[in-house]
Design goal:
single chain; alpha+beta; Glutathione S-transferase Yfyf (Class Pi), Chain A, domain 2; 2 domains; 11 helices; Glutathione-S-Trfase_C-like; Thioredoxin-like_sf
């Protein structure tokens, strides 16, 4: 059987990525991702916000993330990235960097970023805490504990990131005292942060290493987050096959 590639919709034709990952639903937000802690931030947000979207698998291999088509949308060659055919002023917009995408989706819908100017600043504060601290430090911990860095004999790099992960968990545990969500109401700050907490167990096998039992507020927060139906759907988008 001959399978014809769907034609590129005119509003998306200016984006070379659509030549390799064509849109079957060009009126929807196009998500280019893989289910990593960074990738699922955006799929979870899209599910929580109820925005129509189409997910494309972009695997973490050079022929995908370093391809000319993908790098035309994200020159940094990292997932996730999106195209919104109904962007500002009604014109399509392509975006990369998970934190920037979360802020964009929250602004687009007026949801998940705080209802007042003060609340919005608190949400942004914790979002930046994730982008600059939790993500990079937990990722390095995973590298030196579970991946190629574990072969390095010098114990200092691994210990550095164990200690920093514990410190960050302590900050979060204290901030969560008496609260369900990190910035007060459920927000993109929670969506950004908790997938990294989940990865400590599911991907890095590091819960005992960081002493997660010493951070009960963090553990309860993680469990509340993972119980949400939209979160469960977003964690498996796009599917790994």
């Amino acid at each position: 059987m001959n399978m014809q590639t769907p034609a590129i919709a005119p509003e998306l034709a200016d984006f070379p990525i659509t030549r390799r990952w064509p849109a079957r639903h060009p009126d929807r937000i196009q998500l280019y991702s893989w289910p990593t802690p960074n990738g699922v931030k955006v799929s979870i947000a899209l599910e929580e916000l109820g925005l129509p979207y189409e997910a494309h698998q972009v695997r973490l291999r050079p022929e995908d993330v370093k391809s000319p088509e993908f790098r035309s949308l994200n020159p940094n060659g990292k997932i996730p990235a999106i195209i919104d055919p109904n962007g500002p002023d009604g014109a399509p917009i392509g975006l990369f960097e998970s934190g920037a995408i979360l802020l964009y989706l929250a602004e687009k819908t007026g949801q998940l970023a705080g209802g007042s100017a003060r609340e919005r600043q608190l949400v942004t504060q914790w979002l930046m805490f994730q982008m600059g601290g939790v993500g990079p430090m937990f990722g390095q911990l995973g590298y030196f504990h579970s991946f190629a860095g574990s072969e390095i004999e010098d114990p200092r790099p691994r210990q550095r990131y164990i200690d920093e992960a514990k410190r960050l968990l302590g900050v979060l545990d204290e901030a969560l005292e008496g609260k369900e969500w990190i910035a007060g109401e459920y927000s993109i700050a929670d969506i950004a942060m908790v997938p990294w907490l989940r990865a400590l167990g599911t991907t890095y096998n590091a819960l005992e290493l960081v002493g997660m039992e010493d951070f009960p507020n963090v553990s309860a927060w993680r469990d509340r987050f993972l119980a949400r139906p939209a979160v469960q759907r977003g964690l498996n988008t796009p599917p790994r096959d």
